[in-house]
Design brief:
Blueprint (H helix, E strand, L loop, with lengths): L2 E7 L13 E6 L2 E7 L3 H7 L7 E5 L11 H10 L6 E5 L3 H11 L8 E5 L7 E4 L3 E7 L7 E7 L5 E2 L10 H8 L4 E3 L2 E4 L1 H4 E2 L6 E5 L17 E5 L7 H7 L4 H11 L3 E5 L9 H10 L3 E3 L5 E3 L4
The structure holds zinc ion (2 copies).
């Protein structure tokens, strides 16, 4: 089952050089989530042929415009596409008021219901859970209350070793073995689960961390994740600017990836001062070689890491 992260927008603050503000589309086991929704998100989603109608949860990290100004346009498009399914929107406090004001003054009501969930970004909190995944907040350090998101697959079932299954085995026994239960006939052990099953596929995790000042404190929560997106608004020579605006440098993103021992790092939220991003990428790679740029239109497959 897929676990893929597609970069929809990668720019910090303003759209420049063909780059757009923050937005990512996640497909995890056929659940389609949107993280942040910067200006032009819906245009970019259409450009990359990502299915808007399949999005059922939207997670907004904070209320700086470059992370949510694309939301109203997207909601109206969903409405015009005759969406009827409920939509859940998770964000720090205030986003529901912003949306409702815009609907009020445009005398509009949407075809579908929005469930607003506001959360306190200063502490870790599970926002979403279903049978396959959880989404948990990652408290970040920024000028506004801001949270990253950790998307984690739940433990998966054992896999049947089909080569060893016997044709005479009853289906109910096979189901039991898959659940890790041994099969008895009275006191007689018929089949041992461990003999007929293989370990589950590993559960994968993705951490999204934008916007934030360098914060080693978060390393524990994201330790060992398959993929980390960390903002790298600046390069190290602009460290003062990074401190002042509570953003990170490419080197710091690399340092955090190293400390948290993640498998792969992607950096994004690039400042408008960098037209070319090679030097920024090299700076992060000098600390953490397994780094890529969050290039728009790129899909990162967690199985390919
Ligand atoms: Zn931002
Ligand atoms: Zn911000």
């Amino acid at each position: 089952m897929a676990f893929e992260v597609t970069i929809v927008g990668s720019s910090g603050a303003v759209p420049v050089y063909g780059r757009h503000p923050s937005c990512q589309f996640i497909n995890v086991q056929n659940r389609h989530l949107l993280i942040d929704c910067g200006e032009a998100a819906q245009i970019q989603l259409a450009r990359f042929q990502l299915p808007i109608h399949k999005i059922n949860q939207i997670f907004i990290s904070h209320l700086h415009g470059d992370h949510y100004l694309g939301l109203m346009g997207l909601l109206f498009t969903m409405h015009l596409q005759r969406r009827t399914a409920d939509l859940q929107i998770f964000s720090p406090k205030g986003l529901d008021e912003i949306i409702l004001q815009q609907l009020k003054y445009s005398r509009s009501s949407l075809n579908f219901h929005i469930d607003y969930h506001s959360f306190p970004p200063e502490r870790t909190m599970q926002l979403f859970e279903d049978e396959a995944i959880t989404v948990t907040t990652i408290p970040l350090k920024h000028k506004l209350p801001t949270s990253g998101f950790l998307i984690a697959e739940k433990p998966k079932p054992l896999r049947l070793n089909k080569l060893l299954l016997e044709p005479t085995m009853k289906l109910q026994y096979i189901a039991q073995l898959k659940q890790g239960k041994d099969v008895y006939d009275g006191d007689n052990l018929l089949y041992r689960s461990a003999d007929y099953t293989l370990p589950p596929h590993p559960s994968r995790r993705y951490a999204y961390c934008s916007d934030t000042a360098f914060n080693e404190g978060m390393a524990e929560q994201i330790r060992g994740v398959d993929l980390l997106y960390h903002e790298a608004t600046f390069m190290d020579e602009e460290q003062e600017k990074a401190v002042e605006t509570q953003h990170s440098t490419a080197r710091q993103a690399g340092q955090l990836a190293l400390k948290a021992q993640v498998k792969k790092l992607i950096v994004g939220h690039f400042s408008a001062r960098y037209k070319e991003l090679d030097n920024l990428l090299n700076e992060a790679r000098s600390v953490f070689p397994q780094t890529d740029l969050a290039t728009e239109g790129t899909t990162f497959d967690l199985d390919a890491i």
